[in-house]
Amino acid sequence: MTSVGIDAIAIHAGKLKLDLAETFAPAMGDEPEKYTKGLGLHASSFPDTYEDIVTMGANAAHKLMERKGLEPEDIGRIDVATESAFDHSKPVSTYIAGCLEQVFEGDFHHANKGERKFACVAGTQSIDDAYNWIQAGRNRGRSALVIATDTALYARDDPGESTQGAGAVAMLISEDPSLVELSTEQGYGSADETDFLKPQQQFPSVDGKRSVQVYLARMREALVDYQSVAGEVHPYDIRLVPFHTPFPGMVRKAAVLGYRHMIRNTEIEDALAEEIGPQPREEAFDDDDEYLDAVREYTDALQETDRYREWYDRVVDPTLTISRHVGNWYTGSVHVARASGLMELADAGEDATGATMLVGSYGSGAQAEIHAETVQPGWKDEIEALDIDEQLESRYDLTFEEYETVHDAHNHDEERSFQEFTVPDGEFVFDGWGRMGERKYDYVE
Ligand code: HMG
Fold this sequence. Notes:
three-stranded mixed sheet, 15 strands, about 40% helix, binds 3-hydroxy-3-methylglutaryl-coenzyme A, alpha+beta, eight-stranded mixed sheet
């Protein structure tokens, strides 16, 4: 079977920053630790007034194509994953292709373009589509461009407001990839859920507490399904677990449940039993509530053990570094987690070639997907080419009043025009409206 996976990646973060501890917490009357410790978030990234899902996606794709020396004819598909689309018919990928055609010679007239929607899991689904297209031999030697781009805004005063974020991740899916190879095996956990949705509205209706429970339930189902095809997963065979990360605190909850599941009936459960007892087994309880209480108690104790903490610090924590400073990017979030984990390994000088990652994607509504990825020999060069640290450093730090203005500027119901906070430089910008209500874009040198 052909080796197919992610060959290259580029990230574009919204150019504005809202500091949650310094700026948001005091304005909301909250303790900063609620955000920095509870949710695990320090800042959110926001798009400037001339940025949107198209400019962020096009800027990421442009950077990726330039770095890899690609021309439009090298690309056979452009799939955009987003839940912030502004058009029910014309896909965002056509706008992005139009932008790229302003700066590259040639065009994308023979590339298949589309848009994927399933909340945050759509980016992973687009990678799946590209994988299948290449494995089917339909790609004519060309690669697929997958772009996950979102402006993840909540209504003002919604509990989700502190988890906002904006940015895009562009990924090149190719044969014989340089970064990671994708496993054929996949596991799904999918159910009709009403926890987070946007029925004909820009800002989501969210049942936040329930969304956390649904995330955990679907992720568990996906792990069981994955193991049914890939076999038992041993937690110490995995180097990184990038999860969909709406906020790092969510991943903290998911990771301990995954670990608990993976160590059941293993020598690790036995070793830990001396300290915290064996895992409660459902058949040993007559009453469901008593069983659930026992499971909660075991999980809390597990989380405090040195053995678990060491595993978490090595396998999960590295994936959260970027997320802490950008918030939720919806479709891009799990792909940011992968990049973050690999950046940490590169910074530590580790040779990760051949290492396995278990990637846990999730979208509300709801569906989790788990697959494995094998790190490829070219990974370090690809990861070291990322400039996300510089981007985050140079963001404009908003006051609370400025944040309110930016939120308004991206509210589709607002018709006023707004001043920008930064000066565009070598990037695509939103440039007003066309005669049929389409959005127009320009490249600023
Ligand atoms: P909330 O009411 O703002 O916060 O809602 P909270 O009171 O639950 O506190 C959050 C955490 O901070 C808690 O920790 C507190 O204890 C802690 P936990 O008990 O959960 O471990 N805390 C503190 N810690 C230290 N010092 C303090 C302090 N104060 C409190 N002083 C909620 C939080 C997540 C519900 C909210 O932010 C929300 O609604 N977010 C949006 C929905 C969301 O992100 N859900 C996640 C799962 S669904 C998902 O990931 C899909 C999604 O990406 C969409 C898609 O797929 O398209 C959202």
